[in-house]
Design goal:
- The chain is built from eight helices and five strands, in the order βαβααβααβααβα.
- With 215 residues, the protein is α/β, with parallel strands linked by helices.
- The chain has a single domain, classed as P-loop containing nucleotide triphosphate hydrolases (Rossmann fold), CATH 3.40.50.300.
- The protein has a five-stranded parallel beta sheet, sandwiched between helices.
- α1 packs across α8, α4 packs antiparallel against α5 and α4 crosses α7.
- The mean pLDDT is 95.
- GO terms for molecular function: ATP binding; dTMP kinase activity.
- Pfam families: Thymidylate_kin.
- One of its GO terms (cellular component) is cytosol.
- Keywords: ATP-binding, Kinase, Nucleotide biosynthesis, Nucleotide-binding, Transferase.
Length: 215
Amino acid sequence: MLITLEGIEGSGKSTLIPAMVAYLEDRGHHCVVTREPGGTEAGRQIRAILLSPGNAGLDPMAELLLYEADRAQHVSRVIRPALQQGSIVICDRFCDSTVAYQGAARGISAKVVRDLNELVLGGVTPDLTFLLDLPAEIGLSRAWRQIQSGDRHTQETRFEMETIRFHEKVRQGYLDLARENPERIRVVAADAAREQVRAAIIEQLALRLAADFQP
């Protein structure tokens, strides 16, 4: 099973993953935790380019192709092998991010994004996606507090430096995806208390496990 977490900056994806892993492993499932960009050694080098504030002028198509290059390596070297071994893969961002950021927000053709995603995924798609949704201004405020406190790397702030309008477009792109894929994408209110968000995620995990792993 491939589980992905999506959302705008500051939505709290990475803070929820340990609770998800604990819940799944307590029930006998082996988990592989990964992320995009940067889930492989080559991907970590691509991540440095994509998230560096020094690359603010990166062309949108160049940005898209770098994300897809990262994803091709990631699927080939990490995700597909883990799935074939029976692990549950939990990925912080995946193909939906490209639709929301490079498609909805950057304005690249939805067909171009979809075709490139299909090419590099090679049939690997998420089984369950949690969309952590909250207003853009709240997410950005959280992200900058984390950066200023040292909890997030100052060399990975290129997207935080985008306008509020950009992040509103990203959010809308995600919500559009959720409406188009209600069977896969679970929208979780990420502006609630952390414990409430965690409980909502665990509840949905329990339902999915009951459906997929029943005797």
